[in-house]
Amino acid sequence: MWPLQQLARDLLAPPPGMPAVDFSAPAGAPALFAPDSVSWAVMKSPVALLVGGIAAMILELAEPRVRTGVWEHTSFRTDPAGRIHRTGYAAMATIYAPEAPARALIESVNRRHERIAGVTPAGIAYRADDPELLTWVHATAAFGFLEAYRRFVRPLLPGDCDRFYAEGARAAVLYGVVDSPRSAQAMDALFAAMRPALERSQIVLDALAILYREPWLPIWARPLQGLSVRAAVEITPGWAREILGLGRLYDLPFGAEAIVRALGAAGERIVLDAPPAQACTRLGLRKDYLYRRTLAR
């Protein structure tokens, strides 16, 4: 219990340069998402966050404009732990924080995006606040979190998946996203529309190598780094793996999926002193409210 709690504290402490959020106060303050939402249930899962976040990164980097922006304007190459920390904290704030500080944090992210622009190696201009690119980043994150939850935590009915996308689309507008998928079918349509623009790049392989090699988890959890990367590749659509050249080398080894599933199941039972439980307490709910809820199976 203590290692998991310490990991939650380390990963969800306010990152440098981002506004600190008190998830436990003020009492009764609503979030952008309701406690009975699919989003609250899915995003409480450490496995969904970790594996889904890496899967989202893989798909993001398949798009050349997003890839160039991430590689040239973020600290991923030199400080992968810092970028993972900031991304996870922003996701937690968007889902669980009181609405006012959540909006303030989102605005701080938007201001950073306004300053990022450049040209890809192929000579294509890009801006980080381009609505098309924002839509791709948001949608791939939603896909990654949802697929990781479905594969390694618990199954969901199609209606729950559609609700998850629809809930996220409402908040995505605050990030400048104008046409976010609102259903699994819409997500498939976006994949079909974006597929011709995606391409293989050594940068994707380099990014995965960084996640294998660099110490972005505490020392006791380091064996989970490689397992998380392989699990993320496992839920990346097969057609995308083919485009990116992510072959059998990245498959989960025999027995590894059972380990990830066991971790996912544990994350559904162990109540950590982290934003999901803190948000429940803020709204007058039991601290274990999200761990007692059962989504449709």
Domain module count: 1
**Which structural class do you get from the secondary structure elements?**
mainly alpha
Task: Let me know the largest β-sheet.
Answer: 2 strands, antiparallel
Number of helical segments with 4 or more residues: 15
Q: Assess the beta-strand content as a share of residues.
A: under 5%
Structure explained in plain terms:
By secondary structure, this protein is mostly helical. The protein has one domain (2-292). It is 61% helix and 2% strand. The chain has 15 helices and two strands. It has helices spanning 2-12, 38-43, 46-62, 64-73, 80-96, 99-114, 131-152, 158-172, 184-194, 202-213, 223-235, 238-244, 256-267, 275-282, 289-292, and strands at residues 117-119, 125-127. It has a two-stranded antiparallel sheet. Helix 3 crosses helix 7, helix 3 (46-62) packs across helix 11 and helix 5 packs across helix 6 (99-114). The longest helix has 22 residues, at 131-152. The protein is globular and about 55 Å long. The model has no long low-confidence stretch (mean pLDDT 91).
